[in-house]
Model the fold of this input.
Amino acid sequence: MSTSTDAEPNYLHRISHKRIDPPALTAQTPLPQLVEEAFLSYNAGRLREACRLFVSKMLADDATVGLSLSGALTPAGLGISCLVPLLEAGFIDWIVSTGANLYHDTHFALGMDMHQSRPGLDDLKLREHQVIRIYDIVFDYENLLGTDRFYRKLCRGESFQRTMGTAEFHHQVGKYLAAHEDQAGGKHRSMLAAAYRYGSYTDPVGTVAPDTVDWDFNFDGHNFNADPNAHGTLTPTYDYDTPGTYLVGLRIIDSNGDTRIGTMYVTVNDPGPSANAGADQSVNKGATVYFSGTASDPGGGPGPLQVEWDFNYDQTTFAPDPAATGTLTPTHEFDTAGDYLVAL
Done:
């Protein structure tokens, strides 16, 4: 029979990764050894685990690397120092970001300055001098006004006069920011511009430009009839007026002239008509009761709706009153006191 004291060392060894006994660091200690042998516990240990994950998984040739951004990262210059180099080196495949990070990223592409300062500044003085503060980052109020002017002018342009998703919108924005940076001749500072230069609308061989993307929302499998309203976007919308099953085709042409058509099916259901007989009423015997019903048919079946009323519905057999046929606002007189269920 084992005592708890006897069992404890065995249990301790089972849960132990290794005994803590790191070597002393020197000026010659390389970075990998620093991470592996000195970053042992607490947040340093979690950073070591992240580094291992990066080396063993994220650097694999077939790995898809996604990056999510939240918090005020780009105002602090992390777009310039980290994200742009990662995009240029091909380490990022897709990005999900808050709008604020992409908005403030635009400041750098437009040549606007952001300044490192300190927290605890007098906000009244900042307001008097039209200085904006994000914790310990400060910048001129004109940065916001100028960026707003840029987006207002950009969104009035021809390229933006159609429905598009946020991914395509920021791809288009990156196109203009990249052109602005190239024209200015300075270093590449914008994450959006870098994402445009090094990603989006690509296949393994050639590049698929937005103007070679088309959709046919009733593809017959042979003749591709492109919808002009969906040209150039990977995220179109379409309204079907008639119920049925439709084959939808997406056609792309890459820079090598290769064409591919992908398909999917969309089933459009007929929800049928809806009827509302109106609110409950309490009236005197023999009085004229005025009804006001409503009806709709989102499916848009052929012909007009047939409207009928039963002023004493038994919830089993619908007995229409001929005098109320064809109208949503009939009248009726009840000669006997009681509760009546009225159905439209």
